[in-house]
Specification:
Strand content: 5-15%
Helix content: 40-55%
Number of strands: 10
Oligomer: single chain
Number of helices: 22
Length: 521
């Protein structure tokens, strides 16, 4: 491949930023000066994401090849794919038959070593893109990162449920962030057809986008995560809505066919258009995904003729060994309290082994230490016990290090988190024991879906060097000061909770945090 003039300089600058820990600058460089040296850039991204993970993926890969195929003969791999990929969607991007066989071998070996992956349709397309510029071993290293990303990153869905949520999340995001363009489509396309076409949006990208544009998009995706896919899809929608020819074609041949034709003939850099969509962030994707998940669950329960009450499985009870690990060091919780709280957690979280990551009795009362111990866990459960004996807290859906992230204008975001966040308190029974739990969930979900969300109802988490707080709007649901000594609890619009303690201003006895590591959704 002939590189454009200056491509080497861009790669050198990109590597320099990564070596200096200037991740934001590296991302912006890829956005503003798209690379043409995909081989060098992707290798640099692999190295960046693999820091602290010194694993010999090459040896693992070829050992797995021998286990799965009994040797390296490509004839044994042709047209053989694992059940986690979608057999009807296997784009090859003009690769020859030998490389296509290598892609089958790659995804088969990855699936063999990752048995928890039950359904990941984009795994094959990603392998095919990578194989255009990387060796088999390098492709395997890259794919390993995509399915086991660094903390804070998300790339590929790994179950049918998460895939369905992803597919159905773009349309409500489009209604919110590019409303004017979606309104154009809604005026000429029947709603059912519009929604059906939007659910196939990942295939607009991976099956229709010309390879030169796809590789550029994939580079930013590999660096930044799945938010790039959403930005790219929103930009494709904007581009389509501006083309009167394709809008007219939608009336005659249908929106699905017309959209795919438009994307296939793409000649402009829509990725730049996607990066210019204001106020669009990972937290917005997470919030909308949660809403879609809730709606799907409700529809499923209605179709089954059952109540809307969430059905629990045995997996949603905390494992006895995990509970004992926590109770052995906790100064706040009993087994019964912990078990009751488990029923309030999202189903996917109950399957992850928890860990007590912070206790003010053991680690001190410094907010800096609190952040150091907790900020790489997502999600977390925060517990506060007061001098009066009240016990309450919050389920914090995002990492505390998001307090340092900046918005599109470069300003630190004051609030972060998602609609899964909630407050809770332990209630005293007649026997004086606090064995019952009252939860206060987010009140703004329905209003937000309808586009009428009140910003004060979305103040989930906040933190800086002087305090942490959960919930806001005409009061703070839960506030703790920098010394983890004093706090305040009030009714807030985000959760419509009463004060969690017997006194709004309280003195803290102990603060504890349970963390959930390696969470995937």
């Amino acid at each position: 491949m002939v590189e454009k003039e200056g491509a080497g300089d861009t790669l050198a600058q990109f590597k320099s930023f990564l070596e200096q820990g200037k991740t934001k600058e590296a991302k912006l460089l890829l956005r503003n000066q798209p690379t043409r040296d995909f081989t060098g850039t992707w290798k640099a991204i692999i190295s960046h994401h693999s820091r602290g993970r010194p694993v010999d993926t090459s040896s693992i890969y070829w050992d797995t090849v021998d286990t799965c195929f009994g040797g390296t003969d490509l004839a044994d791999c042709r047209d053989k794919t694992p059940t986690c990929v979608e057999s009807n969607h296997l784009p090859n991007y003009d690769l020859d038959t030998d490389r296509q066989a290598e892609i089958c071998r790659l995804v088969t070996c990855l699936a063999y070593n990752s048995p928890d992956i039950t359904y990941s349709p984009l795994l094959y397309p990603c392998a095919a893109i990578l194989r255009r510029h990387l060796s088999e071993e390098e492709c395997y290293a890259a794919l390993s990162i995509l399915v086991e990303p660094p903390r804070g990153s998300q790339f590929l869905t790994q179950s049918r449920r998460s895939w369905e949520i992803m597919c159905q999340t773009l349309y409500p995001l489009a209604q919110k962030f590019i409303k004017k363009h979606v309104s154009k489509l809604e005026a000429i396309v029947e709603k059912d057809q519009l929604q059906a076409t939007f659910t196939s949006w990942p295939w607009w990208i991976f099956e229709c986008t010309p390879v030169q544009h796809l590789q550029t998009m994939f580079t930013s995706f590999f660096m930044e995560g799945n938010k790039v896919l959403y930005r790219f899809a929103l930009a494709l929608t904007k581009h389509y809505a501006k083309q009167s020819f394709y809008l007219s074609a939608a009336r005659e041949e249908g929106f699905q066919k017309s959209m795919r034709k438009c994307v296939s003939s793409l000649q402009v850099d829509v990725l730049q258009m996607g990066f210019k969509i204001a106020r669009f962030s990972r937290s917005e994707i997470a919030k909308m995904s949660i809403k879609v998940d809730m709606e799907l669950k409700s529809l499923s329960n209605l179709e089954d003729g059952k109540s809307l009450e969430r059905r629990r499985s045995n997996l949603e009870l905390i494992a006895p060994d995990a509970a004992q690990d926590i109770l052995a060091v906790s100064d706040t919780l009993s087994y019964k309290q912990l078990q009751k709280l488990w029923h309030l957690l999202p189903e996917r979280i109950t399957m992850v082994k928890p860990k007590l990551v912070f206790s003010s009795n053991d680690h001190g009362t410094s907010l800096r230490t609190f952040y150091n111990k907790c900020e790489y866990y997502e999600p977390t459960l925060l517990f506060v016990r007061t001098k009066d004996g009240d016990i309450f807290g919050a389920y914090c859906s995002s990492t505390w290090r998001e307090r340092n992230e900046k918005d599109e204008r470069g300003l630190r975001q004051l609030y972060f988190g998602t609609g899964e966040t909630f407050l809770f308190k332990l209630l005293r029974g007649q026997d004086g024991q606090q064995d019952e739990i009252q939860a206060y969930k987010w009140v703004g979900r329905d209003k937000e879906i309808e586009g009428k969300g009140d910003r004060a109802e979305q103040l989930f988490m906040s933190g800086d060097d002087t305090m942490i707080s959960i919930g806001g709007g005409e009061g703070t649901g839960l506030y703790v000061n920098e010394n983890l000594e004093f706090g305040r609890t009030e009714t807030c619009k985000t959760f419509q909770n009463p004060p969690l303690a017997s006194n709004s201003d309280f003195t803290i006895s102990v603060v504890e945090v349970i963390g959930f590591n390696d969470t995937k959704w």
